[in-house]
Specification:
This protein has 316 residues and is an alpha+beta fold. It is built from 12 helices and 13 strands. Strand 8 and strand 9 form a beta hairpin. The longest helix has 22 residues, at 171-192.
Length: 316
């Protein structure tokens, strides 16, 4: 598994917030849900996304935006339109003065807006908790990116539009997986564009020296790797590998491996039946104490406290 595939394997929506919005100008929504990551796809009409610390971007039909939280942002028919509604945590909306709008604007299953015949239709998918998206992935993303419809060819947006208002057994699981697929497809296309400022780990994957080393670290994270051992497996010198790896990836091989192991441990701890001892062995730590020490140094909490936070409502 490549570092890129492994990183993008991280998104795991769990009961994600998904909504179809049908809107008639003038309209403007201020998003204050503090979600770590949100996708917005334009199906019909146009919209503007206005983050607080970056330039506004226009969405045309077929375009998909990825918004990195948790800071507020505005989605509107025009950047100059003042907010008519505020979207809070949990997906409910109020007027700017605090009056509840959820019932007044309900248009059916996962559908919201002022009119069923509105000029603009948007699809929104929101990851509710940070634990659902790899923190290294979040760190690589700009505050806002927009993938124009003409730069890719994918059936995912029409499929999501078809499925989002369907009320069927297991539909939440279907929508969660569609959201994950859409995010992976958008980011893969985004990072592969000519001239894209892709993160170091993505560019390094194609390097003849660092690429094989990355694959080894991702395929066998529990192996007792050393720089010398990696160099021997990749057919280069220890000094050359360390220098090239740090130059392309942005950190030394063993630092990268430590971060990879801890990220994997954090993911494995989502399983309530996984013990810290078992997870330690799976990610290359000789004892639960060694894992706990490294985990707390990196995340600020023990593995057990991390798992407790994952199971708490609204946390993660």
């Amino acid at each position: 598994m490549s570092a890129f595939a492994d990183l993008l394997d991280g998104p795991r929506a769990r009961g994600a917030f998904l909504l179809r919005s049908i809107l008639e100008p003038p309209w403007s929504l201020r998003i204050e849900d503090r979600a770590p990551l949100t996708l917005v796809a334009a199906v019909r009409g146009e919209a503007w996304i206005v983050p607080g610390d970056a330039g506004e971007e226009r969405l045309r039909p077929g375009d998909v935006a990825v918004v990195r939280g948790p800071d507020p942002y505005i989605v509107a028919d025009d950047p100059a339109t003042p907010p008519r509604a505020v979207v809070r945590s949990g997906g409910c909306a109020t007027t700017p003065e605090g009056e509840d709008l959820c019932d007044a604007l309900d248009l059916g299953v996962r559908t919201w807006g002022g009119s069923p015949d509105g000029a603009t239709t948007l699809l929104t998918g929101t990851y509710r908790m940070r634990s659902e998206v790899d923190r290294r992935l979040l760190a690589t993303l700009p505050r806002l990116l927009v993938l124009p419809s003409g730069s890719w060819d994918s059936p995912l947006v029409p499929l999501l539009h078809e499925e989002i208002a369907r009320d069927a057994p297991g539909q939440e699981a279907v929508l969660d997986r569609l959201l994950d697929l859409l995010l992976v497809a958008v980011l893969r296309t985004w990072f592969s564009r000519p001239g894209a400022e892709a993160p170091g780990w993505y560019r390094a994957h194609g390097d003849p020296v660092v690429g094989p080393a990355l694959r080894l670290l991702h395929e066998h994270p529990a192996h007792p790797w050393t720089v010398a051992g990696l160099a021997a497996r990749t057919g280069t010198s220890r000094a050359a590998l360390a220098r090239r790896f740090t130059e392309l990836v942005g950190e030394p091989p063993m630092t990268y491996l430590t971060n990879r192991r801890l990220a994997l441990a954090a993911d494995l701890l989502r399983d309530p039946g996984a013990t810290v001892e078992a997870v330690a062995g799976q990610v290359g730590y000789g004892s639960p104490f060694a894992l706990s020490t490294a985990f707390k140094r990196a995340y600020g909490v023990s593995p057990r406290d991390h798992r407790s936070a994952l199971s708490a409502p609204g946390q993660g």
